[in-house]
């Protein structure tokens, strides 16, 4: 099951569970769409893979299967500043 991480690993932008701007790689590294497009150019800095839009967990299931609250931030590893 996806962790549904709460933030962008580059800029620390909040990415709530229903965010259409959350992008993930196959290892669930989580970034905002802006960082993926502008800073990372579509390549995950952690694994070298590509990104896809993170699925949105239905709100009715968030109580039973909550999103993660653990924030991961690694601005040094996320490419050049825009």
Automatic annotation (TrEMBL):
Pfam families: DUF1272. It comes from Amycolatopsis cynarae. InterPro entries: DUF1272. This is DUF1272 domain-containing protein.
């Amino acid at each position: 099951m996806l962790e549904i991480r709460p933030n962008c690993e580059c800029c620390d932008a909040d990415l709530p569970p229903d965010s259409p701007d959350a992008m993930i790689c196959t290892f669930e590294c989580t970034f905002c769409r802006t960082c993926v497009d502008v800073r990372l150019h579509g390549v995950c800095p952690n694994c070298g893979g590509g990104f896809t839009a993170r699925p949105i967990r239905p709100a009715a299931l968030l109580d039973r299967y909550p999103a993660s609250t653990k924030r991961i931030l690694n601005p040094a590893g996320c490419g050049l500043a825009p």
